[in-house]
Amino acid sequence: MHRIDPRIVIIQIALSGICAFWIFKPLAMLCEVIFLMSFLLYLQHPKEALRLGVWFAFLVGLYALLNESNAPQIIVQPVFLLRKLSPLLGVMVLSLKALTVSELFMGLQKLHCPKSAALALAVALRFIPTIRHELEQIRNGMKTRGVPLNVITFVKAPAMTTEYMIIPFIMRCIKVADELSAAAVTRAIENPVPRGMRVPLKIRIKDIVYLMMVICANIGTLLYSLCG
To answer: HSE-up of 14 (CA within 13 Å, CB side)?
Structure first.
């Protein structure tokens, strides 16, 4: 696997996130998604790159179909919003796949980020992958009780379905947060001495080349969206 210095990846995530908020042209969104897919492929995550591409293509096709059929705006607008947020989805996937929690914390520490902010980001990165697992557990639990959580059930009884999903999810999140806090304390997260790594962080030539490609890709996409 191609490893990039965590500091470079953190800078890339910040740049891509900023650009994703400012681009609005469909072609610029497509370019940003393609760039993120290319970086995922370079980091040897082909499945995630393919999923991101298929997801964006599906939303583009669905949005075009809804516009052609003059669908109600209450349906069109959520699809437009999801398409707009697709680059941010790519940024999230990149952050989850390119960095471990330890690498993220060390990278933020090397960038002189406040420890409180570094801890919050590290916990968020650790917590995000558990959301899907928790929702799957809730869905299986409701299914065994004869209340399947799917689109049909939501259409028939939206309030009940939302209640059955949200309340257990909130309770599980509270429990997971307590577990993460206990794990952090066990690992001496409150120790004021800066953490070390078995393999010291060192920016190499390929990291600099990678960063230059990231900067050029994001600035080019942003300029095209704003001035093109």
So the answer is: 11
